[in-house]
Design a protein that fits this description.
Blueprint: E1 2-9, H1 13-25, E2 31-35, E3 51-52, H2 63-82, E4 86-87, E5 91-95, H3 101-114, E6 120-123, H4 124-130, E7 138-142, E8 146-148, H5 150-163, E9 167-170, E10 173-180, E11 183-189, E12 195-205, H6 213-217, H7 222-225, E13 230-239, E14 250-252, E15 265-268, E16 274-277, E17 281-282, H8 295-303, E18 314-324, E19 336-339, E20 348-352, H9 358-375
Parallel strand pairs: 1-2, 1-12, 2-9, 5-14, 12-20
Antiparallel strand pairs: 3-8, 4-8, 5-7, 6-7, 10-11, 11-12, 13-16, 13-17, 13-18, 15-16, 19-20
Helix pairs in contact: 1-5, 1-9, 2-9
EC number: 1.1.3.15
InterPro entries: FAD-dep_OxRdtase (IPR006076), FAD/NAD-bd_sf (IPR036188)
Keywords: FAD, Flavoprotein, Oxidoreductase
């Protein structure tokens, strides 16, 4: 049985960023990160496009808009200071037909409203100059979009937190959370399979795909609160041949309706490899396999803007699962970042529905959590 000041559940990129920030800003606090896997970032944080987003898609006044724009700047700064591999490649959001051009204009206006100041609307000839192998009648150029080595980022955040005294409890699965006086009692199963308890004053719920369990254990109606997680799977296919060199930037079609996803887009890995995805479909089971038969679906989507791609070029790569809090057919939902005082749970900060642009927003999310605790 142990007592600490702060417990963070989940060692994904957001949990690690929160640990690094809190250990820096709240000196002298005993902080523990609890993670059921044997190392950090084993789920959503390591199974994504590794894109540093600029923040042009998200609605006015949303946390996603504000935290992404701020996080973009913070993340590039962090990469420079800490030597995290990254490339500011730039991105084209394309219109494949004249009918899609108004969508680009809408995205451009939304980006300006969100504070993304470097976007530029390009005509077909300008697109061809930048990317001669891309079929598009127009595009938005986003110079501040890039890619990052997410594992290196998480390693640096963990290192920073450790150096500042944060303790990491890997292979410690939280199985119950209860109120205990003014704080919380967490029951967990350790590496030896035995149960034990830890007490804390502040509990940061950064459990990703499992984040709805913590408020449920504490008596909140997760349906009514809008905290229910709907796992949404996305698969990726890659190109391993020389065709990867025919594109130098990230290429995105217009986003899917209601921001279910950003469509099957083309990204560039740090090694120059071309990769496509993610798709987006809701699932019940957390299965990370890639169905090779879905290659034809990818091919049809990609061929509309990269005509040089053949079906035989596509090889299955990875799959990721997003912790969405919008169910099938529901309108777009914002991040939940909430100190649950109104629910009578002072000291509990829920981070729920942290999907894209969660990686880009990780440092700004951490700052937001630190401010919530600092005010108390």
């Amino acid at each position: 049985m142990h007592r600490v000041d702060i417990v963070i559940i989940g060692a994904g990129v957001v949990g690690l960023a929160v640990a690094a920030e809190l250990s820096n800003s709240l000196t002298g606090q005993a902080i523990v990160v609890m993670e059921r896997h044997h190392k950090f970032g084993m789920e959503t944080s390591s199974r994504n496009s590794e894109v540093i987003h600029a923040g042009m898609y998200y609605p006015d006044g949303s946390l996603k808009a504000r935290l992404c724009v701020e996080g973009n700047r913070l993340l590039y700064q962090f990469c420079k200071v800490w030597g995290v591999p990254h490339k500011r490649l730039g991105k084209l959001i394309i219109a494949r037909t004249a009918e899609e051009v108004p969508v680009l204009e809408s995205i451009l206006n939304q980006g300006l409203a969100n504070g993304v100041t470097d976007l530029e609307l390009l005509e077909a000839g300008q697109v061809r100059q930048l990317e001669p192998h891309v079929a598009a009648v127009a595009a938005i150029l986003s110079p501040s979009t890039g890619v990052i080595d997410s594992h290196a980022l998480m390693y640096r955040l963990e290192y920073q937190a450790r150096c500042q005294g944060t303790m990491f409890a890997y292979r410690h699965a939280v199985t119950m959370v209860e109120r205990s006086g003014a704080g919380y009692r967490l029951t967990y199963r350790g590496p030896d399979g035995q149960s034990d308890w830890i007490y804390c004053d502040w509990l940061i719920n950064s459990a990703g795909l499992w984040a709805d369990k913590i408020p449920s254990w504490l008596g909140l109606d997760v349906e009514q609160a809008g905290y229910r997680i709907y796992p949404c799977k996305g698969e990726y296919f890659g190109v391993s041949n020389a065709k990867s060199g025919l594109v130098s930037r990230l290429i995105y079609p217009p986003p899917l309706k209601e921001l279910k996803g950003l469509g099957i887009h083309a990204t560039k890995a740090l090694d120059g490899r071309l990769r496509f995805g993610p798709s987006a479909f809701y699932v019940q089971d957390l299965d990370y396999s890639v169905d090779e038969e879905h290659a034809s679906e990818f091919y049809r989507a990609i061929k509309s803007y990269l005509p040089f791609i053949d079906l035989a070029d596509l090889q299955p790569e990875i799959a990721g699962i997003r912790p969405k809090i919008q169910g099938p057919g529901d309108p777009v939902r914002d991040f939940v970042v909430r100190h649950e005082v109104e629910h009578g749970l002072a000291g509990l900060i829920n981070l729920i529905g942290i999907e894209s642009p969660g990686l880009t927003s990780s440092l700004s999310l951490a700052g937001m959590v630190a401010n919530m605790i600092g005010k108390e």
